[in-house]
Request: fold
Amino acid sequence: MALKLPLCHGKKFATIVSAYAPTMTNPEETIDKFYDDLNTVISSTPIADKLIVLGDFNARVGSDHTSWDGVMGKHGVGKCNRNGLLLLQTCVEHGFLVTNTIFSLPARNKTSWMHPRSKHWHLIDYVIVRNRDRQDVKVTKAMCGADCWTDHRLIVSKMKIHIQPKRRPHAAIALKRLNISKLKRPDVKQTFVDTLDERLASITLDNLDAGAAWTTFRETVYSTAIEHLGPSTRKHKDWFDENNITIQLLLEQKRRAYKALYDDPMSMAKKVALRNIRSNIQSQLRQMQDSWLSAKAEELQGFADRKDMKNFYSGLREIYGPTASGSSPLLSADGSTLITEKEQILERWAEHFASVLNTPSVINDEAIERLPQVPANKSLDAVPTLDEIQTAIRQLSSGKAPGSDMIPAEIYKEGGPALTDKLLCLIQIIWQTETVPQDLKDASIIYLYKRKGNRQACDNHRGISLLSIAGKILARALLNRLNVHLEQGLLPESQCGFRKARGTIDMVFAARQLQEKCQEQNSDLYSTFIDLNKAFDMVSRDGLWRIMKKYGCPDKFTAITRQLHDGMLARVQENGQSSQAFPVTNGVKQGCVLAPTLFSIMYSAMLSDAFKDSTTGLPIRFRTDGSVFNLRRLQAKTKVKHNIINELLFADDCALNAASEGDMQHSVDIFADACNNFGLTINRKKTEVMYQPAPRKPYAEPSITISGQRLNAVDKFTYLGSILSRSVVMDDELIARLAKANAAFGRLRKNVWDRRGIREKTKIKVYRAAVLSTLLHGCETWTIYQRHAKKLNHFHTTSLRKLLGFKWQDKVPDTEVLVRADLPSIFTILAQSQLRWAGHVARMKDNRLPKMLLFGELTQGKRSQGGQKKRYKDTLKAALKAFNINPINWELAAQDKIKWRLAIKNGAQSYETSRAVAAEQKRLARKGSDIPLSSAAIHCPHCQRLFRARIGLVSHLRTHRDPPYSLNG
Reply:
C-alpha cells in the first residue's frame, strides 16, 4: 500500500509505502514476488519524492555495517539471514538506508519481535528512507509499552522533512580546454596535422635553453590546436563528448526546420518536416548512446580480464555518468570555524595541501650507508631515443585532464611525426642541460571526498595532481628504463605494487594460501596489517636520491629524476579558479608515473635493512616440478627449496606474518624501528592484528604493541579490496561482493537499464563488464562451497531477469534466462576464472610468491587425521575434472597459454551444457512427481497438526511442555 502526501504547496511529495514481507517458511517464488512488487513500487516513485518504506519485513539485516556501508548504520542487531540479505540487496540497489540501525539505543528500543521458542529478541520491522534524506530522520526506535494486539513492538520514527530549494548552479570559469572530439573528424585532424607540421618546421630549438625551448614548443602546439579544434567549454564525461560535433549538426538542422515553421506556421508540409526531423534526431541520439555504451562495455571487460583495475574503475565511472561537483563549506585548521566564502575556501585548501606536502622527514645516514652498493648501470644515462619517446606516448592514457599547459595526451598521440620529433629534441635538451622547465614540474591539485568522515574536514579528502603531459612523457621514458634495471633482482618478490605482470590478486592469493596452509597443517598465523601515515608524502627526497645511487642509478639519471621534483610548485584548482602557488619540498611527486616505483625503491631499502638478519616469518618448502596434488614430492631431500614468508607488499600496503605472538611482536618492533630510521610514521589507530589459531585451539586475543600502544585485534580485515577472515571462510567476502554488485547495478538503473533505445545486447555487455566483474572481483583466489556459489548465482540470474524483463509470473527457469542472455552460470564462471589463474601461476617463474605457496607447504606442522576442510587445491581439482582436463599433467598443458585458454573454453561449454541438461531433467522429474500431502505428512500426537518434516514436529512438541515424545511411537 502506498500513500502520497503533498508537501510545499503541492510542488513536492512524500510517498509512504507500507509493506508486509512473507516469512522464510514461504516458497522462494512467493518471496521473489514480494520483492518484485516492491521494486515496481519504488521504481514508479519519482526520484524527487521523499520516499519512506515501513513495515514488517520478516528479515534480520544483522550488524555488518562495513559490508553494507551507506545502507546500514553501526547499531544493527544480531546476524543477517536469507530474507535480510534480500532486503539489503534491494536497499543498496535503490540507494536506501535502514534507519533502525543508525541510532545508538538500548537493546529494548532496537528489537521489535521475540522468537516464541528461543525467547530472543530480533529486529524485523524497519523504517527505510533514501540515503540522501538521512538528515530528515531524528530517531527510529521500538515502543516497549505499546499494546496493540500484536506480538511485535511498534516502531516509531520521528522525522523533520527538509525541502531543499532548487538552486541554480554557479557557472564555473570556462577553462580553455581543447575540443579533442574534433580530432575524430578526418578532415579536421588532417588540417591540424598539416598546419602543425609547417609551424614546427619553422621553429628551431637547438640553440635555446630548456625553458625557452619549452615555451616556444608549447605556444606553437597550443595556438595551432586552439585555432583548429577550438575550446571545449563543457565536459559531460559521457557519450555526449564523443558525438558532440554530430549532435550540434543535428540540432542545427532542427533549428532551421523550426525557424521555417515559425515563419510559415500554417504550412502542413513544414510541420511534417519538423516532426520527421525530431523523430530522426531522437533515433540517432539513442543509437549514439547505444554504440557508446557497447564500445565502453567491451573496453571495460578487457580491463577486467587483464586485471587492470585502475583503468577498470576509471571506465566504470564514465558509464555511471557525470557527477555533480561544487565547493562546500570547510572547517578551519583548528576545527573551530566553518568557512563559507569561496575565496577563503580556496585558501584553506591551499593551506591544507601545503602542510600535507611539506611535512619534513629525514632518513638516517647510517641506514643508507648500510645498504649494499649495486654497480652503476651506465645505460640509464644514455640520451633518450625516438623509439623510447614513441613508446612513452603510446602508453599515455587518453581522456585525462592536462596540466597548466592545457595540452592533452590526444594532441601528442594524433599530432603526427613532426610533433614527436620536436618533442624528442626538447627532451634531449633537457637531458643534456639537466634542467627541467617549470611547467613540467608543477601540479594543479583537485580534491575528492573519500566518502568517510566529516565532509567539512580537509583530511577526509584525497588530493589528485594534474601534471603536464609533456612531463608525463619524460617521466614514462625514465620509468621504462628504471623498471628494466630494477627487475634484475633489486626489488623483493614480496613487492607486487606497480610492477609488470603483478597485481593485487597476487598478494590476495598469497594471503589466502597462507591462511589455508596454516589451517591445514595445524599452525597458528599472526598477521599485522601496517598502515602508514601519508606514506608517499613522507619520503625524504634527499635520502631518496642517495638510495637511488645505492641501487645503481647513475648521476645523470638521478639528476633528471631529481629535477622533476626540485623547485616544484602546486596550486589548488576548483571550479576554474586557482589558489596561490606554494612550494612542494617533500615526498614523491603525486600523480607522476615514477612516484610508486620511487617509493618502492625506498621501501625495499628500508625492509632489506630492517630484516636482513631476521628469521621471523613462516618457513615454507616448495617444489615446482611434478603435480601440485602430489604432496609426497615435497618429501624429497634434494629437489625441495625453502623460503621464509615474512611480509606481503603492494606499494605501501604491508602485511607482516608470523607463526607465534612473540615472533609477530619482534617483526613489528623491527618494522617500527625501520620506519623511524627512514622517516615514515605508522598510523597506530589503523594498524590492526588478526590472529588465526590452529584448528580446535581456543582463540586468545593477541597483544601486539607499537611504542607501548596496543594494536586493535580484528576478526576480519579488508586487504587490497578483499576480506580476509580468521575463520578462513568466504562468507564475509561474499556478502561484501554482493553489496558492491547490488550498488553497481542500482547506479546503472537510470542510465542503462531503464533507458529506452538501448539494445538488450548492449545492456548485457554493460552488466557483464560493470556488475559481474564487481561481483566476482578476486574470485580466482576463492575456496567456496556450493552454498556460496548458489547465493552468487541467485544474484546473477535475478539481475538478468530484471534486465530481460522477465516477471515471476512468466515461470521462466534459470537455464532459459542464461540462454537468452548468452551468459554462463556463476558455477561455470568461477571454475573458468580459477583455471585461468592456476594456469597463470603455473607459468610464473619459480621464485614468484604465488607459485611457491600453491606448489608448497609449511615446513612445520602436520595435517589432522580424518576429513579435512576444503582447500583451494580441492576446488581446482574439481574444476579440472568438470572441464574434462587431466588433473595429473595440467601444469604441463598450462605452459602453452593459447592452448590452455582453448581447453578451458571448450571445457566451460561442455560443463555449462551438462549443467543445463541436468537442471532440465530435475525439473521434469519434479513436475512428474505428485505426492499427496496426507501420505507425506507427520501428525502431532497432541493437536493433530500436520508437518511435512520431522524437524518441524520436534520444534512444535516443545510448545506442549510435555516429556519428549518418541517419533517412532
In short: The domain at 2-159 is CATH 3.60.10.10 (Deoxyribonuclease I; Chain A). The mean pLDDT is 88.
